[in-house]
Please model this.
Amino acid sequence: MDYSYLDLNHLDSILAIEKESNPYPWTVVNFKDCLDKGYYSLALEEEKNLIGFAIMAISTEESHLLNIGITKDARGKGYGEKLLKKMIVAAEVMGSKKIILEVRVSNTTAYNLYKKLGFEDIGLRKKYYRLPEGREDAYVMSKSLKKDIMSKFFFSKS
Ligand SMILES: CC(C)(COP(=O)(O)OP(=O)(O)OC[C@H]1O[C@@H](n2cnc3c(N)ncnc32)[C@H](O)[C@@H]1OP(=O)(O)O)[C@@H](O)C(=O)NCCC(=O)NCCS
Model:
């Protein structure tokens, strides 16, 4: 299992994961936009095959997990949890106070993963996601992060 930063070479594989995950998948433009903006984006590979990705906008006040996905064949084996833990550490190291995210109310798998790693419900965005017919609500979830990781390192006098 190897991690790397997401780049344009991963796009085809990410789009394939996205298409098998969402009724209205992100497009290539959405992913390129994230890369252009320099969002913190990781690829997870097994024997040189991409099996997962995650994208997060990091800021000191509030980081935002924008997307995460694991190929269908590799789900339920702990990869999503490992990848999300990397994102949490990255936000913590950069001094983020919290991570927020949205998740479809019907997406029990992702909801359970977020709960397991300490995210809490903080609200509901009505009709946030498109569906083939109509729209679906999203839970908004938040996880508070450890405060002193960054300050110990960056603000020490040595
Ligand atoms: C959500 C997703 C990233 C989880 O990744 P994964 O590798 O399948 O999950 P893991 O094997 O790491 O499981 C971690 C936890 O998730 C939850 N989970 C995983 N599979 C589940 C399932 N089939 N049903 C319910 N909960 C499940 C459990 O809490 C699990 O912990 P446990 O094994 O101790 O019970 C993955 O299923 C996926 O890519 N789904 C499609 C894309 C998506 O929905 N992304 C999130 C958008 S908000």
